[in-house]
Amino acid sequence: MKHPDSYLKACDSAHLQEGRHIICEVHYNHAPESIIVCRFKGQCYAYVNRCVHMPKRLNCEHDLLFDTTGQYLRCSMHGIIYTPETGISQSTMCNGEQLKAVKVIEVDGEIYFSDKHVSA
User: Fold this and answer.
1) pLDDT, tens digit, for every residue of 57-88?
2) d(CA 4, CA 49)
3) How many Cβ atoms are within 10 Å of 18's Cβ, its own excluded?
4) What is the dihedral of CA 79, 56, 30, 19, to 10 degrees?
5) How far apart are CA 105 and CA 4, in angstroms?
6) Does domain 4-119 have CATH number 3.40.50.2020?
7) Which of 31, 49, 95, 99 could bridge to 87 as Cys pair (CB 3.0-4.6 Å)?
8) C-alpha pair distances (Å), 86 with each of 4, 44, 100
9) What is the pTM of this model?
10) Domain map of the chain by residue range?
C-alpha cells in the first residue's frame, strides 16, 4: 500500500461520524466530480454523487443522505435507496443498479481517497 501522504485527503476521521456523510468536490477521471464519503457500521465508503435513476446528485433537493431508518443511502429527488456497503439499489425501479464506488482508506485518524481516478 502507498503511504497515505501520496493520496488526496478527504477529511479527518473525527469529522465523519457514524451515519453521516461529507461531500468532496474533486476530479474523477480528470473531470470535476462530487464524491460522497459516508460512515456506516464503523466503515467508510465513497461513491460518485450521482443517482443511477437520473444523473442528479443524491443530495440535490436536501443535504440528508441516509434515509429515516439510517440503513440506506437515499436520493433526495426520487427516493431511490442504496445499501451503504455496496452502493447497490434496493428500489424496485433501479433494483440491482449500482452507484460508482470510489476507493477510500482510513489511516491514523484521517480518511483518504485511495482511488487512482481521484485527484485534486
Assistant:
1) 999 988 889 999 999 999 999 899 999 999 99
2) 23
3) 11
4) -30
5) 8
6) no
7) 99
8) 23, 11, 9
9) 0.94
10) 4-119
